[in-house]
Design goal:
Elements (H helix, E strand, L loop, with lengths): L1 H31 L11 H7 L9 H21 L3 H22 L4 H10 L2 H11 L1
Helix pairs in contact: 1-3, 1-4, 3-4, 3-6, 4-6
Length: about 130
């Protein structure tokens, strides 16, 4: 029973803290790279309307948010859980699912979609699990 509670706590902690890191980076991104004039980066509708105006530099912080949020969440889960790499990958899969959902809801350039979905989630979660071991 203690092992089950520990693993559940690992998943909850990883998802919660990883999500906070993700959103924190997204919210700070406008302070470092200003959005194009007239683009509201705070709403889904604003992003959809202004997606064609975004340059590659505007995708740096979303990628960092996804990768670092996944890393922190997977690392924490792995540190808490009994099977470190397994639980790190679970966090990576959940965050990847969120990334896939965002691509469906908010289409982005194909180059970013590929880099983000292939590089920001499972490889980072694997690395976090290995670091935690």
């Amino acid at each position: 029973m203690k092992i089950i509670l520990r693993n559940v706590l690992a998943i909850i902690t990883g998802l919660l803290i990883g999500s906070i890191v993700n959103m924190g980076i997204i919210l700070m991104s406008g302070n470092f790279i200003t959005p194009p004039a007239g683009v509201d980066m705070t709403t889904e509708e604003g992003l959809k309307a202004g997606m064609h105006l975004l340059e590659p530099k505007h995708f740096i912080f979303p990628f960092l948010a996804h990768a670092l949020g996944t890393f922190v969440g997977a690392y924490l889960a792995a540190r808490i859980a009994t099977k470190k790499l397994f639980f790190a990958i679970i966090i990576g899969i959940v965050f990847l699912s969120g990334g896939i959902w965002m691509v469906v809801v908010l289409p982005s350039p194909i180059w970013f979609t590929l880099i983000d979905l292939l590089g920001a989630y499972l490889p980072v979660a694997y690395f976090a699990g290995k670091v935690a071991e």
